[in-house]
Amino acid sequence: MTSFDLAASARGKHVFVAGGSSGINLGIGEVFARCGAKVSVCSRKADRVAAAVKALEAAGAEAWGGAADVRNYAEVEAVLKSAKEARGPIDVLISGAAGNFVAPALGMSSNAFRTVVEIDLIGTFNVARAGFEFLRKPGASFIAISAPQALHPYAYQAHVNAAKAGVDMLTKTLAVEWGPLGVRCNAIIPGPIADTEGMARLAPTEAERKLAREGTPLQRYGSKDEIGYAALFLASPLAEYITGAILPVDGGAVLPGPGRLGDAMKQAYEKAAPRNR
Ligand code: NAP
Ligand code: COA
Prior knowledge:
The protein is α/β, with parallel strands linked by helices. The chain has one domain (7-276): Rossmann fold. It is built from ten helices and seven strands. It has a seven-stranded parallel sheet with strand order 3-2-1-4-5-6-7, with helices on both faces. α5 (158-178) links the parallel β5 (141-145) and β6 (184-190). α1 packs parallel to α2 (46-58) and α1 (23-34) packs across α8 (224-235). It starts with 13 loop residues before the first strand and ends with a helix. 44% of the residues are buried. The site of NADP nicotinamide-adenine-dinucleotide phosphate has 28 residues, from α1, α4 and α6.
């Protein structure tokens, strides 16, 4: 292959994004929209879905949206069926609905823990399980939106750590079961992404945002577009031999070492560096 038009590879595809009414998930939809894909979204709140459909249309998509809570299998199945009826078989199925709040395990009720596991993990199962029937097979792909909590035991994130680790293992299991059926399954682990609800909850102060930036080897937050580009690649023919991959798109944030330790390590390094030159 001498050249390849990645954007053109998405033209006319039907992309469904669960949890696609805001943030990273809507950003992914907008990247596909700008490439000429048809984009459908669902989330709990009809007004947010309607606003997302408008944003996707403004980005160039033939867009569609419906309300569904990913914890409710019947609602998920119904919204996916309607999306297929409206826009055709689904080529790219993205599961990104999630919930998060900061609380120590001892400050969480059983219901609080269950709520996040139900949205993130069981919701992902519901989207994949119900969505399979509506995929264009062979050739479709499933992409889960995971999180760094799947890889490291972050304090005050017991629910998300457990749920997203489950999302990664579920994705790998589906890759094994669905590969022979012509469906590739991968996950993206976004790093700290600017202008998102997730980071507003996890790093609400400038001091915390500074730590998150400096704990990232590339020294900055990522953008929603950068997560969209990764999804575009994973859904494209360039990735036709990739399944079961868990792809960090995070400026290196999950890597161990000084990059993750933020200010204190950085200052220690700066002090030692002149001696090492
Ligand atoms: P966000 O804007 O709050 O996105 C969450 C979306 O999920 C919203 O559209 C929300 O819409 C929907 N949702 C929540 N509960 C739902 C449910 N029960 N059923 C259906 N939809 C539901 O947050 P974000 O920060 O962009 O996060 C998006 C994804 O990226 C999540 O999977 C998150 O774990 C992952 N992530 C984010 C970051 C980051 O830097 N922000 C980093 C790593 C991973 P409704 O309220 O209308 O339901
Ligand atoms: N600390 C401890 N427990 C909390 C909490 C907090 N900050 N916030 C909610 N909970 C508990 C509630 O008290 C409740 O438990 P209880 O019944 O024992 O009292 C349980 O969590 C469920 O809360 P509820 O508000 O009924 O859930 P919901 O389904 O309406 O909303 C959330 C789900 C809590 C995850 C809500 O934050 C949400 O809708 N988030 C979506 C957006 C988001 O989180 N974006 C970032 C994605 S990374």
